[in-house]
Each structure stands twice: as C-alpha cells, then as structure tokens.
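PT: before anyone asks, these are the final sequences, not the draft ones from last week. 851 residues across everything. Please model them as a single complex and drop the result in this thread when it's through.
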Amino acid sequence: MNTAAWPAGMAALIERLLAFLAQDGCGDAEFDALAAALFALQYEHDEPYRRFCQRRGITPRRVAGWRDIPPVPITAFKAATLSCVPPPDCERIFMTSGTTRADTRGRNHHPSIAVWDRSMQRNFRRRFMGEHDRLPMVLLFPGEDELPNSSLARYLAQAGRVFGAPSSRSYVTTHQGLDADGVCARLQEAQRAGEPIAVLGATFSFAHLLDALAGRRFALPPGSRILDTGGYKGQARELPPDAFYAALADAFGVPRERCINMYGMTELSSQCYDHGNAGVPSVKSGPHWLRTRVVDPLTGRDVPVGERGVLAHCDLANFNSATAILTEDVGVAVEGGFVLLGRAQGAEARGCSLAVQEFLEAARA
Amino acid sequence: MMLRWRAGHLPGPHPAGLRWHTLAFEAHGRRAEIEVPAPAADQVRHIARGVREAAHRHLRQRPVDAVIRTLDQAVARLLDPADPWRKQADDLLPIVSGYDAEMVRLALTGYLHSFRAPQLQRFVAEDFPNPKVLDGFQPAVKGGAVRAFGPSLLAHSWAGNVPGLPLWSLACGLLVKAGNVGKLPSAEPVFASLFAQLLAQIDPELAACLAVVWWKGGDRGPSGALFAEADTVLAYGGNAALQEVREQVPVSSRFLGYGHKVGVALVGRAALDPQRGPVAARLTAHDVARYEQQGCYSPHVVYVERGGALSPAAFAQYLAADLQALAHRHPRRALALEEAAAVAAWRQAAEWGGHAPALILGDEQSSWSVVVHEQPQPLAPSAGQRCVTVCAVDALDDVAPLLAPHAAFLQTVGLATTPAELYRLADMLGAAGVTRIAPLGAMTQPEPGWHHDGRFNLADLVRMVEIEGAAERAADALAPYAQELR
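LR: through. Structure below.
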C-alpha cells in the first residue's frame, strides 16, 4: 500500500469512514455530511468523474446530501479509470467477470482494502452469522489466490477466514470445477456430528451442486444456513427463485428463512442481504453506510413509491471510485429496503425498427 | 374513462367456445381494453378452411379491378375525418400505440393515400405488366399464355405497433385474391381489425375471404394450425420471431419474412448551404420523430458530408433544435422502464464509450438526443425514441463501406444530394445492401408499389401457371375443326 500516492485528505477520510462503519447506525445528517465529503474528494481527484459531474453542472457546492450526488452508470467502470489514486498504487483492483477481454471489464480500484474488508465483515456478521461467532463453512467458489481480481472470491475467502471454523474451505477450483463428492462427504460429516454448517457460494454453483446431488438429500443440523449470490448471469440453466429456494431447502434440510441471498457487485464496496427467502422476491437492504434510491434510468429522478425503476446506490465505502452508482438492476422500493426484479433487459422492438439488442446478437453470431 | 373495443374479424358464426382475450393499454391518461378473438388450434383450422373456401368461391372469379374498388371505398372512408370508422381509429390508436394523437392522425392519412384506387393500380402494374394475368390467362410474349394465381390461403403474422402496417400485406393478399388469415400484433391490434370490420360492412363477400385473430406470441398451437393450412406465410418481426415462424412452416409452403431494419440518412454538401442546410435538418428531424423511429424505414444515423457551408456539427445543432420543436408539437410517447433503460444505455455508451467521447446534444430530461461524432462510425441502431447519431464523413462515398457489413439489416436511405450524385451513390448503396433511396422527410412514407425490402409485393405471392405454346398447338391438333396436313 503506497499511501504517499494518496491525495491529501484521503487518509483522514478513511479514518473517519472506518469509524463511521464501526457505528451502530447513523442519522441522515451524518450520512449526508460524509457523502458530501467523499464527493468533494472524488470530484477533485477522480478526473473522469469530475467531467461527468461538470457535464451535468454539479459541483461540490451544489451537493448538500447524498441524493444530490450524480450516480455513475456502471458502464463507466468499464470505459474509464474511476479512481483518486493511480491504479498501480492501489492495493486491490476488483474486476467484473463476464468477458474475456480485459479492457471491457469493469474495474473498481481500492487504494486500501481495509475499508472494503471492514464493510464486508461488519455487515456479514450482522446479516448472516446470526447467533454464531464462527461456523464451519463449505465455500462453493474458487479461492482468492486463484481469482485475485474477483470481489466475490475475496468476499467468500474472508467469510471463511474470519467467520469460519478451522475446517472451512473451498470446494471449487477454476480448473477442476466443483468437487461435489467432497461437499457431500463434508455435509454428511456435519449431519452425523450434529454440528451446524454454512454453505456459501455463487448461485450457479448451487445449481451445479443440485444437479450433482441428483435427488440426494441432507438434513443439515439446526442452525445451518446457506448463502447464495449473483443469480445466474446468463448461465444456461435458470431456475426461477421460488423453485431454486424450494430445491435448496429440500436438498439440504435448511429452512428457506435461513437461505440468505446476498446482492453485491464489483462496482460497490458493500453488500445487501435479505432476511431469508421464505417468500420471494425477498426484501433486501444494505448496511447503514449504504442507501438506495429507485430511479428512472434515463432522468435519474426517483420513481413514485411502488413503481419499478433501476437501483441507484450510494455506498460510502466506495470512497475512491464513486460513492453513487447507477445500476442496471430493476427494483421496487418497499418498506425496509428494496425488492430486486432482475436486469433491465434490452427493450424489445415495438415496431419493425432494428433493436440494439438484436443488432448486437447478430454481430456476435 | 375506460374504452372497450372488440377487435378481430371472423367471417360467419363464431366457433363454439371461442375465447376472447383482453389486451389492456394506457396512454395519454386514457385506458383501453381491446378484446381479441383467441381461437384454439382446432378453431383456427376451422376458420382457415372457411376463409379458403370463401376465397375460392367469391374471390377467384372477381376481377382485380373490383377488389381495388372495394379497397378504395374502405380507404375513402378512413380518409374522411368525419367518418365514424376514422374517428374510431383516431380515438383508439394513440392509446394503443402511445404515439402522439396528432402524429398518428397525420401519419395515417399520409399512409392511406397509398391505398387509393390509382395507387393500388400502380401496385399491381409494378409487379404485373399486364394486370389481367390476375384475372385469367393472358398471351405470353414467348408464346402460349400465363395466369397468376394467388395462394389459396395466405397467413399473415403481423408484428409491431406502427399503426396501419398490416394493411400492406392484407391489401396484397386481397389483390392476388388469396384467402387471408392474419394474426394481430399484441402491440397494435386495432388497425387491422378495424379495416377488416369496415370491409365487412362495405363488401361482406370480400370480407368473408378474410379473418383476423390473435394468439399470444410463441403459442405454437394456433400458429402451427394456421401455418399448416396456409400455402404461403408472410411474417414480420425480429429474426428470432421469424425463425420461430419459419420452423413451423411446412417445407412445401412459401415463407416470406420481413425482418427488422435500420435506416440511415445521408446529407451531401449540396444540401448544406445556409438556405438548404436548415431545411435538410428539419426534414431529417421529421423522419426521426415519426413513430419514434419504430419503423423499419426510420433513420438512426445521419452521415453528414464535410465541406459544405454548414459543418456536420452545425447541422447537428439545427437537427437538435428541430427535434426540440417537434418535442413540443408532437410529444414523445411515454417510455416503459426497459425503453428508458435502453435510451440511457445508448447515451451512456456515447458518453463513456470509445476513445474520443462524443458530443451529446440534449440532456437526460430531453425527449430526444443527438450524438455527434466527428469521425466515421460503424453503423449501429440507436435506442429509437428520437435518439439519433450525426456522423461526419469526408465524402458520402465513405458511407457505403460502413453499411455493407450489415447488409441484411439495411433498407431505407434518406439521401440529399445532386442528381448526378444520386445515381452514383445509389449504385454504391444498392450494392451495399440498401433497397430504398428516399428523399429526406419522406423516409417513413414509401411510394405506392415500392419493393418492400427489395422484394416484389405481389409477384412473390403468386404462382404463375402457364399454357405452353406447344400445348396450344397440340390442342389445335385436337380441335374438331382441325385439318390434317396433306
């Protein structure tokens, strides 16, 4: 970590941020104040972001609270280097998956990974661990050493390291894929010992595991829990959420209330969780340092309560790139958080004019 | 206030147990529930056979001029603003399509001009030098005689929300005296229904040769039944939808697919002087705004030649100002979330993509966007909804190579240039895959008798039956008055 490359004031802001994360909650004014301070830092040192704001006539003087901060579309993380610190001086750079061409992957730069780590741990402990300090964990995702640029790999590795009992480990490698026999043996053992266990991983890894089980069922001890994340992201096999959680509960004997879905993205430094998936779609919410608006994707204005829009998050832990980001995730604001309804799919042609989506598909073919 | 309207057209008594499905629409603060007949597979089969039978009985012997007369009467009714049928269309179409009411009214009237008797005659003459081949055997130049038979049953799979579009294929089907069964598009089930119902009032015998029904897109029960009965299937839609239709058409039947297209405009130096430049921009804005670029003929990219009095960037400014003016006169239709997201994504790509960020005219609150590129850009459709790219080129000659890789998606080019250039560029553009060169301002209004996507509207539908000259001579030999050669 090369703190010499950090702009003036960043170290102090990080200290302030870490203290803020350690609080038990926060008031609106506190949130707004820190959001405005981080915006000022980014406006000054994050050049593409500054130009983005200038084109919209927004300056730090015009930002009184988090709602005034223009959210950056996630596309910008692919096209530009959104960072107050030169990339070589950043401790970690997380990249989005989904394409093999490195230059079109979204990148989020972390000058110090301490903030991301603190954000992950504070919220994970509160939203997933329940009454446990540690739990044996079965991780269904490759390790951090294999995927150093994957925020999900770090997330799960850190879950295992900080909150996992000593037996915790990953059962997936990029080369060999899922070790379904290993997972089964481990779950069998937990079942025999009557010791609660946690299974965590990418949603599609669970889908593969369910396939591998081929109807085989476990009755994991009470207190066991499951965490899936990421949805299917274009994987061939797509189970509707209700069927997916029914299948999980059935295969592992973990009630759906303890099947937690985590919503996170490379472009953020914090995660959102639901309170189980007894009913779907579940209500998700972030920690006190993340706030979410549901907006019209074009105008950026809040949609009326109860109407569909895309999610715009203000994540204070994203102190270096952009605290406010505009996602492509469709959702509805509800009491206690938001409901996720999937991605804003390319609009279908209404007339006989060629739609962008069809054009791109043809170009790929 | 909620409007309810019964769409579709079924000749004869409705099949027992026919289901009706309600499609709900809301726009401009008004709501409409359109009930569409949703026959099951066996009912579709029954309807299709009835229509084919009626066409065989009533239509085959009817001279094409008589068909034209009926169509002309129906169109005259729809061109009369005081006529109740026209009023019905003016009332329902803006709610169903979401388009500005005045825009729909103007566009529909312009469109219907193409279906009056003289224009329909031109339609026929374009494909058949001797239109009487549609009525009976006519002498062939090579000897013998030919007659054109339309399909016994022509199935139409309509798509999209551009009002009136189904009339092209429906009129063609009737002109070649086919029995016609049309599947309504869910996005605009009104116009085709209204036209069929109007025909039923004017000429019940002709309307008996026609049915207009609906099923949910992708429902292979009724569609399979129809396509199996039809000897020609004409379908509009995206490639995925066309693929699905084609898979269901028996290999022995004819499939005619009209896919989605992207249009471009080319503005040459000659049109970029201080007087003509602003006019060209205004005409281009009209083409962009008409039906929110949802037509296959709508422009998405405007290639503007450098070296005129008006620079490409200045042209873009005029275009932006005209789009702003049109936004007041004909407000853009309200966007669904997915459409707003698509427009946002297109603007974001312009703002963040590429090495030289583009200039974007119009902000996120505007109901239009003009993106200006100073470097030639490969062809790409915009998000529609009055989003258009202005791209500077050193010469209009540079455009055809940019279009050629996308030949399958090309159709209309709006071209503003000198007569000599018109033909030279048309050669290049035609070779690249373009099928229609139109003037700016009329891109969205093809001429009567145009070759839709480069095809023959009527000739593609018919089967030519010929009596060979030798057969005639052989018959002569068998005539009772035949004389043996001595």
